[in-house]
Amino acid sequence: MFQNQGLTVIRKRGRPAGRNRVALTLEERRARNAQYERERREETAAATRELAEAAGCPPDISTGDLLTTVIETLRRRMAPRPGDEIADLRRVNKKLKAQVIKLERMLGQEQLPSQETGAQESPPALPVQEPPLESEASGLQLLSPHELQYLENLFDNDRMGEILPSEVVCRYFIGFD
């Protein structure tokens, strides 16, 4: 049915595909397997030397000590720094401020048509502040509806002090640095 149309499959290891192959003798199989093992060990040794060089370790360090050193280095670099949490909260605060400004603008635009027709007396819109230039330049994204709902529920909750300490609320969400 299927005929090989001159395409040969190049294998990295193993014997060539096809029929009528002569079986390898025991010595040939052992020699082939020994060659594969030598190649595997050379690749592992080269990778270990490269890792030791990248980690700044001596080339004769044991594999266990090398892996321990690399893991400790990775953990130190991935551990949160004390200022990271504060920076994250300040970034969230900037996003919230930008969101409030956008919503104030939208509220002001929605109230204009109703004020012209005089159909409803609505409270005056909050004063609209211009967003700081850095918020637009930094590419802040608006909060998702889920995040907004969470914050609304948080601020409407009578037990807000139990959920978040008031110092955190004042300092990071309201902007009292």
Keywords:
mainly alpha; elongated; 2 domains; 177 residues
Structure description:
The protein has 177 residues and is mainly alpha-helical. It has two domains: 26-78; 83-174. 63% of the residues lie in helices and 0% in strands. It contains seven helices and no strands. Helix 1 (26-55) crosses helix 2 (63-78). The longest helix is centred in the middle third of the chain and has 36 residues, at 82-117. The chain is elongated. The relative contact order is 0.06. Residues 128-140 and 163-172 have low confidence and may be disordered.
Give a brief description.
This protein has helices spanning 26-55, 63-78, 82-117, 133-137, 145-156, 160-163, 166-174. With 177 residues, the protein is mainly alpha-helical.
Our Rg estimate from Cα atoms comes to 33 Å
Biggest sheet architecture: none
Distance between the termini: 79 Å
Mean pLDDT: 73
* Binned strand content: under 5%
Order of helix and strand elements from N to C terminus: HHHHHHH
The global form is elongated
Give the tally of β-strands: 0
Runs in which pLDDT lies below 50 for 5 or more consecutive residues are 128-140, 163-172
Number of distinct helices: 7
> How many domains comprise the coordinates?
2
Structural class: mainly alpha
Q: What fraction, in percent, of the residue positions are helical?
A: 55-70%
Biased composition (Polar residues): 111-120
Region (Disordered): 107-137
